[in-house]
Design brief:
D-Maltodextrin-Binding Protein, domain 2; Bug_dom1; BUG; signal; 2 domains; about 325 residues; alpha/beta
Length: about 325
């Protein structure tokens, strides 16, 4: 004869099995409707262009289309917060950037890096210093010498306070012993537009985000914060070559709410792997001068964890942590 406690255990077990079965069925039918891919920055920047390239290349690998939605503000905080707070069903993804390991240390957001589940890294790019083609500085050293002689006079645009391109400028200032006037925008594209309009003297964004203007002869890249010169810009020196030992950059990848069902995550991982390896996707990134840098979820998770710890230390040292 079943005791009252045993009956409760049996009923709980049956309820859990029913719930598990419902989740498994939901996952096996995933996706049943279109998927949103949230981009935390303005249209036209590197993150936005990457997201749209991914959404297009993913069409053969998911039964429903991915729609790109831009949610700007707060150096990515608005869009990243929406991803973190999303229903954990896999229908709202995020094109996350390195900022999700940085913003929490500034006390500007309610989320932590651990609130996101990495699905796949798609891209990684270094920071660069870019000026107008008619700027008086022809070399990185001339630029730094001027900044040192004129503290706070050089206005450098970035993609938002606390964003990686802001941090790259502050890290350079710390390393070179100079002071810049950092100007935040809602993404790299508005910062580049401001530079073209003469409202600022430089931008600290990635080479890909200025490549079209460089090719048109409007802008000039003085240096890249990478360990080696970039294949797309072989004539641009690294900062290390120019005597300033600094290497800073971003990564971009697909994230999902951390409580998303395992089966859904596996479907997304497989789709992301196939999409990242589509030749059309690689070709598009090459045209955009975005560096293809695929990593599967588990390996990507390790990088996110390591950089979260690194930025916690660095941002405290340069006075950006709260």
């Amino acid at each position: 004869m079943l005791t009252y406690r045993n009956r409760l255990h049996l009923m709980a077990g049956l309820g859990a099995a029913t719930l598990f079965g419902a989740k498994a069925q939901a996952a096996s039918n995933y996706p049943r409707r279109p998927i949103e891919l949230i981009v935390p920055y303005a249209p036209g920047g590197g993150t936005d262009l990457l997201a749209r390239a991914f959404a297009e290349a993913a069409k053969p690998h998911l039964e429903k289309a991915i729609g790109v939605v831009n949610r700007t503000g707060g150096a990515g905080a608005v869009g990243l917060s929406e991803i973190m707070a999303a229903r954990p069903d896999g229908y709202k993804l995020g094109l996350g950037t390195v900022e999700l390991t940085m913003l929490p240390h500034m006390g500007l957001v309610s989320f932590k890096a651990e609130d996101f589940l990495p699905v796949a890294r798609l891209n990684a790019d270094p920071a660069a210093v870019t000026v107008k083609a008619d700027a008086p500085w022809k070399t990185l050293q001339e630029y730094l010498d001027y900044a040192k002689a004129n503290p706070g006079k050089v206005r450098v645009g970035n993609s938002g306070t606390g964003a990686i391109w802001h941090l790259s400028t502050e890290a350079l200032a710390d390393k070179a012993g100079v002071k810049f006037n950092s100007i935040p925008y809602d993404g790299a594209a508005p910062a580049v537009t401001a530079l073209l309009g003469g409202h600022i003297e430089a931008v600290g964004v990635s080479p890909a985000e200025v490549s079209a203007q460089v090719a048109a002869g409007q802008l000039r890249i003085l240096g890249v914060m990478a360990d080696e010169r970039l294949a797309a810009f072989p004539d641009v020196p690294t900062f290390k070559e120019s005597g300033t030992d600094i290497s800073v950059g971003t990564w971009r990848g697909i994230f999902v709410q951390k409580r998303a069902p395992d089966d859904v995550v596996e479907i997304l991982r497989e789709a992301a792997r196939k999409t990242a390896n589509e030749q059309s996707f690689k070709d598009t990134l090459k045209k955009l001068n975005l560096n293809w840098a695929y990593l599967d979820g588990p390996e990507f998770s390790e990088q996110v964890k390591a950089q979260n710890a690194t930025f916690a230390t660095l941002m405290k040292r340069i006075g950006l942590a709260r």
